[in-house]
Amino acid sequence: MMKLEENHYVRDGHVHAQLGIAGTTYNEKHIIELGGHEFIVYPNVFSPAMFPLPDHLVKTWLDLIHIIKPESVLEIGSGAGYLAILAALNGANRVTATDITQDAIENIQTNIEKYNLGDRMQAVYGSVFEPFDKNDRFDVIFWDIPFCHIDKPMEELSALERTVFNPGYILSEAYLKGAHQHLTDNGRVFVAFSKVLGHPEKLLELTNKYGWCLELVMNLEQVTSNIEGIYDNKADINIYELIRL
């Protein structure tokens, strides 16, 4: 099994620099706009103001919701609930958004209430699929998965560090292992990932191990993003579908 090493974005301090800015600049509730809607973001919750979600990724997500027309959607690691809420606002009738920090769960709930989605959405605390039993199945499962390995145990990471770090890709492995049993018969599972910022060889090793292959989800605006302020401005963050082998 491949042993991960910190890439230069982590090793040379680029990621922690962004986290430091996030911790000092966005240490109070603030508003961001995504997909034409405003969201409240709490401190210590993943904020696109510091770690941007590229416009083409949001558009691809919305295109998938419009094409698939899922009855049910599960977003793992939802942060403040941006993409889960956009799914609910664009036709999904039952949406579940999870996260592993209490701040994020409270943040998701605040945005659910902002858009009066309490009858169709819920925020669930827990890691990956741990909160669910075998009968919990969804038409679409998605995770904008943390890309960066760090040589530090998960339990020693701060809430903000957990939004970007995935030691040993243990979270990725739990996602790829557990997704099979939580899909409906025609369900589909997706992941957002960066080959530049992440560890694609490790992701491919794990997809093969658990019976998946990766297929890039394309749209007409698919490009490598050049996002000011993130690492060295190279952010090939795209959505991939996990196809059963």
Automatic annotation (TrEMBL):
<dbReference type="InterPro" id="IPR050078">
    <property type="entry name" value="Ribosomal_L11_MeTrfase_PrmA"/>
</dbReference>
<protein>
    <recommendedName>
        <fullName>ETFB lysine methyltransferase</fullName>
    </recommendedName>
</protein>
<dbReference type="GO" id="GO:0008276">
    <property type="term" value="F:protein methyltransferase activity"/>
</dbReference>
<keyword id="KW-0808">Transferase</keyword>
<dbReference type="Pfam" id="PF13649">
    <property type="entry name" value="Methyltransf_25"/>
</dbReference>
<dbReference type="GO" id="GO:0032259">
    <property type="term" value="P:methylation"/>
</dbReference>
<dbReference type="InterPro" id="IPR041698">
    <property type="entry name" value="Methyltransf_25"/>
</dbReference>
<dbReference type="InterPro" id="IPR029063">
    <property type="entry name" value="SAM-dependent_MTases_sf"/>
</dbReference>
<feature type="domain" description="Methyltransferase">
    <location>
        <begin position="73"/>
        <end position="155"/>
    </location>
</feature>
<keyword id="KW-0489">Methyltransferase</keyword>
<comment type="similarity">
    <text>Belongs to the methyltransferase superfamily. ETFBKMT family.</text>
</comment>
